Amino acid sequence: MEKNDSPGRKLLMTGAGQCNITHEGDVADFISHYGDNGKFLKPALMNFQNRDLVKFFDERELPVTSEPGGRVFPAVRNAVKVLEVLQKACASSKVEIKLGDPLLQISRKENGFHLLTKSGELFSENVVVATGGMTYPQTGSTGDGYAFARSLGHKVTETGTALAPVIVKDHKMASLSGISFAEAVVSLHRGMKKLAEKSGDLLITHTGLSGPVILDISRFIRKGDTMRASFVKGMSEAEMDALLLSRFRESGTRQVRKVLSVFGLPERLVDKILELAKIAHDQTGAQLSKESRLLLVEYLTGFPFVVSRLGGVEEAMVTRGGVALEEVSSRTMESRLVPGLYFIGEVLDMDGDTGGYNLQAAFSTAALAARAVHYSSPG
Ligand SMILES: Cc1cc2nc3c(=O)[nH]c(=O)nc-3n(C[C@H](O)[C@H](O)[C@H](O)COP(=O)(O)OP(=O)(O)OC[C@H]3O[C@@H](n4cnc5c(N)ncnc54)[C@H](O)[C@@H]3O)c2cc1C
């Protein structure tokens, strides 16, 4: 049952319309790409692996291609083709998709479920809830599955956005909007505690930060946290201080900005960092006070950005939180509370990094549930 008049609206938007269906590599390495809840997905990912997904599309004349970083796309780079293959596979297995008829309520009855839809009522022995998360609501994923789960006695953990850009308070680098850095190191801090660190491409936007490294760390980010971005490939403060000191000693008459050129940073960024550290454009190393040098070291190795908020449901790719995993069997996706009820995909309390991990999780959990429903049905 699909509430929209056509299926797969979100799928068509994936990978900017090219559909990053999965990621290369050993599926055992996938587990670390779903935050703390990756362990739950192990049986699903082992049962229907990335290579099984690739084979599925390959056998249906949709070969894939991989990017150097390991992201896997259909070779034609077109999500429409992925959807077509899935629809054809449904049709050939006599799966009927009921379109344009939102499901409104699920009630448990003896031997099955009573389903109330906009157009009427249905009875079903099993129900698989695959309603997705609550981001990009215009695609149809509006969080209905959370209400269904709650109404059937399931716990739903706190939901929020993930794979989302970060809006920064008092954004000091707003004028650098559009500048990106390959392999920047970004760490996340709450009070005195460092919560996470990731490296990857970083983009400065007019409201804050984005790019794969931000999206991937976003599931951990809360309002008021500080993110520190290193523009010098993870060099520590002590290493940077020692390097600058030795350069300034060697040639004290050289302008600080010239000394910084060894890092190959965009000129606009160097100018901005010097401005924020209150170092004049023509200031030389010998003229630099210890205080300014230490500020410069801090800004290069961990420029602080205070989080105002994460991007909202309109701009986040996935939902963090969802149907609590301890009440769902990781081997079948069946509810531990209500026999015959299954949860798959993003409605569950799990979210993956960018790179094809979310679609693979949706396909893998779906495969487990399909198998379990198949073997549970008489005949
Ligand atoms: C812009 C964008 C780009 C993305 N790119 C990628 C990518 O390249 N690779 C990747 O791995 N992941 C990507 N993702 C994430 C990925 O798309 C999702 O994690 C994935 O689609 C989740 O699949 P799902 O089947 O659980 O839910 P969804 O794809 O959200 O599907 C849920 C469906 O249920 C329907 N529905 C909801 N409520 C009801 C109801 N009450 N009655 C009937 N039907 C209902 C909805 O209309 C919808 O069609 C992207 C997400 C976004 C927003």
CATH topology of the largest domain: FAD/NAD(P)-binding domain
Q: Could you tell me the radius of gyration in angstroms?
A: 25 Å
Task: Report the bound ligands by name, code or SMILES.
Answer: flavin-adenine dinucleotide
N to C succession of SSEs: HEHHEEHEEEEHEEEEEHEHHHHEEEH
Unreliable sequence segments: none
Oligomer: single chain
- CATH H level of the largest domain: which superfamily? FAD/NAD(P)-binding domain
Structural class: alpha+beta
What does the main sheet amount to? 6 strands, antiparallel, barrel
CATH class of the largest domain reads Alpha Beta
Average of pLDDT = 95
- As a percent range, the share of strand residues is 15-25%
Number of domains in the coordinates? 3
The assigned CATH architecture of the largest domain is: 3-Layer(bba) Sandwich
Number of helices: 11
Describe the protein's topology.
Layout: H1 9-17, E1 22-23, H2 42-47, H3 50-59, E2 64-66, E3 71-74, H4 79-92, E4 103-109, E5 112-117, E6 121-124, E7 127-129, H5 144-151, E8 160-162, E9 166-168, E10 180-190, E11 193-204, E12 208-210, H6 212-217, E13 226-230, H7 237-250, H8 256-259, H9 267-276, H10 290-302, E14 303-310, E15 318-320, E16 341-343, H11 357-376
Parallel strand pairs: 7-16
Antiparallel strand pairs: 1-3, 2-3, 4-5, 5-6, 8-15, 9-12, 9-14, 10-11, 10-13, 11-12, 13-14
The protein binds flavin-adenine dinucleotide.
Flavin-adenine dinucleotide (FAD) binds next to helix 1 and helix 11.
